[in-house]
Each structure stands twice: as C-alpha cells, then as structure tokens.
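Marked as duplicate of an earlier ticket. Keeping the data here for the record.
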Amino acid sequence: MFIQTETTPNPATLKFLPGLSVMDEGTADYQNADDAGNSPLAQRLFAVAGVRGVFLGRDFVTITKDEATDWDHAKPALLGAIMEHFQSGQPVIQGDQAADHGTRGQAEAIMDIIVDVLNTSGVTLQDVSRIGVGTGPGNFTGIRISVSAARGFALSLGIPAIGVNGFDATLYGQSDEAVACLPAIRDQIYFSGHGLDAQLADRDQAARLGRSLIDRPDPAQLVKNIARIAENADRFDRPVPMYVKPANAAPARDLPPKVLDDAS
C-alpha cells in the first residue's frame, strides 16, 4: 500500500491519499478524540501525539497537528496508523453513518447542487479561489454538513473557506442600527445586531429594542450576501457552526430545551 501526502496552505495541516476510497459518501470532521468514537480510523490517528483534527474525504484524509509537533516526527506514525487501519479490515465509520454525520440525504443533495451551480455557471472547481459558507444558527445537521463540505473542498483545492454567520449575511448592506432576525424553533427567532449578542427568544423581545428588524432574505439573496462577504474577507479562520443559547427571558409557557455548557 502506497500512501501519498500533499501539503496545504495551512502548514499545520497535511493531506494523506491512501490510493483507495476513504468515505463512500460525504465527509466526516473530527475535532478531538472524544468526537471520533464511531471512527476506528480517526481514533488511530488521534492516538498519535500532537494530532488535533481529522477530516475524512472521499479519497483522502486531512490531519491537523498542534504547533509543538513536528511533521518529521508525526508523519511516519500517521502513515503507519493509516496503513494499519486499512489492513485491519475495520470500517472507516461504524454504526449509523447517516445519523452521526449526515453523510446521506442532505450531503448527497448539497453535492448535486454544487455540481449543478458549477455547470450552470460554466466554471469548474479549479476556477474557485475561495469558498464562503453559511455557519448558522439554524438546522444543526444541515449546517454541519455544509461547513464540512466547504472545509473539504477548501482543503482539497488549497484555497480558504470563510464562514459567514446568518446575522452578518442578513445585515449585509443594512444600517448599523438594524437587527437581523432568523427563524428558529417554536415560533421563536434568533436575533442579533451591531453591539448586540445573539439571542434566542420571541420576536416581541427583539421588537422592544426599538431598532429596525430585518428578516433573513430569500435563499438566493442570502447566498449572494455570503459570497460578497467572503469575497471581501481578510481573515481566513476555519469555519465552524454557530450555536446560540436560549435567552433568559424566554417565556415559561414555551421554554426551549436547556442548553448545558461544558462545565455542567
């Protein structure tokens, strides 16, 4: 078995190509060993000292190391771990892949949409210089799929992926006093604006701010706004899904589920 490696624009990230299929469908993104409980391959890789991120694509594995680790020391161990996994006969992901990673259904749909958009526009992936992706808040599975897909494409193409949250995308071109309102569960909304922390509450609470409320635009306009923000971005932090905790003032008759922080 011959495993090739490729560098990426991020010196802390290295791409490994084992020469065979890694993920039959979709992608999987792991930020730590605890998150990799259903992936024997990712568990092997996190067992190597210094590994802090594993991304599994259709025919590649991308690994991110910490600053203190040298590739000259980590790379041989990682090559050995990948080879051992594929020789062991174990699956890359165990159990219900769809439930844990959303790699079926929505993932298939987003790939088809990307292909259709590229074909309609008359461009190829090689023509893309950066990727903008919506990071929420919103549907947990859908956002995680889209962020993972964007990061996968970015790593494969060697280009930046820029995360744009729904509030910034909604308020693009609006005044600083405007407040973005995004649909949420149980007739509630997520809202945020300039100098205002994101909250999950009733629309009445946002209205009491006395500021102009701007609803999320239609999907086509939202995508355009995300693209324009990404085009002008000068920071390329790795995109991650955005989550909003419920506001303390949510009415007792219709409380959202309790959100536990890491200390709970």
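See parent ticket for discussion. Confidence is low (pLDDT under 50) at residues 97-104, 247-260.
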